[in-house]
Amino acid sequence: MADIKHFHVDAALDVIVELFWRNGFAATGVQDIVSATGLNRSSLYNAFGNKQATYVAALRRYIDIWSVPVLRHVSDSGRGVPAIIDFFDGLIQLRSDGAFAGWGCMITNAHAGVENGDPEVRALLNQHHQHLRAAIRSALTTARADGQLPSGINADAATDLLIAQVYAINLRSRPDSDAQALHRGVDSALASIGYRKSQ
Fold first, then answer.
1. Cα separations (Å) of 35 from 29, 62, 72, 137?
2. Most buried in the list 52, 125, 131, 157, measured by CB within 10 Å?
3. Model confidence over 115-129: pLDDT tens digits?
4. Can you state the angle between helices 51-62 and 9-23, rounded to 10 degrees?
5. Where are the alpha helices (DSSP H) in 63-118?
6. Which residues contact 13 (CB under 8 A, 6 or more apart)?
7. What is the DSSP string of 132-167?
8. Spatial distance between the Cα atoms of 120 and 87, rounded to a whole number of angstroms
9. CA dist., res. 144 & res. 115, Å (int)
10. Per-residue model confidence as pLDDT tens digits over 86-112
11. Domains of the chain listed by start with CATH number
């Protein structure tokens, strides 16, 4: 086995994440990865495996770096709806402005792409969805207990509605990142579950 210690695996993987995130699985070839990372094919295969295995590693790192900390804050902050609003504000800003604008979300892109046919990819997507659902539901439960939402609100239905809004933002922002329109959609979703900004 070739020595792969001459490069930083996580740094290379971060480059690969951005490549797959921006271009998608189908449009990214092994030569694209080689060119972007500066690795030779032998080092690439020794570190990550074939293209499919490399994609799985990149998707897992995307979830760990970009998703897990944000969702942990939503569920653990104890702030209820304000934490959800902060989450959506950050999501829209990331999708609409800066270096990653117009890239959409690697998770949502994977749901719609050919890579979704791989069992490992589907398992990661399902795991992420459940994590997203748990975080949003936890914040809504806190919000209901704190009087930010009507006491009779169905937390499961409200969670599903807000998750649909997350995916809609991720899809809509890829071709057209109209931040104001995305914010209006979030405001409407929150209003429909009984949240009022004056609260």
1. 10, 20, 35, 42
2. 125
3. 999 999 999 999 999
4. 90
5. 68-76, 81-96, 106-112
6. 48, 57, 58, 61
7. HHHHHHHHHHHHHHTTSS-TT--HHHHHHHHHHHHH
8. 27
9. 38
10. 999 999 999 999 899 999 999 999 999
11. 59-192 (1.10.357.10)
What confidence tens digit (pLDDT) does each residue in 40-70 have?
Answer: 999 999 999 999 999 999 999 999 999 999 9
CB 33 within 8 A of CB 54: yes
Chain length of the chain:
199
Report how far apart, in Å, the C-alpha atoms of 197 and of each of 56, 82, 191 are.
40, 10, 8
Compute the distance between CA of residue 86 and CA of residue 93 in angstroms, rounded to an integer. 10
Contact 63, 18 (CB under 8 A): no
User: The tokens of 69 are what?
Assistant: 């900390």
pTM above 0.90, yes or no: yes
Give the whole-number percent of the chain exceeding pLDDT 90.
89
**What are the tokens at 18?**
């951005």
C-alpha 153: how far from chain center: 27
Least confident of 46-50, 153-157, 175-179: 175-179
Band of pLDDT at residue 177, cut at 50, 70 and 90? confident
Integer Rg of the chain from CA: 19
Q: How far is CA 157 from CA 18, 145, 154, in A?
A: 34, 17, 5
Angstrom distance (rounded) from CA 20 to CA 30:
11
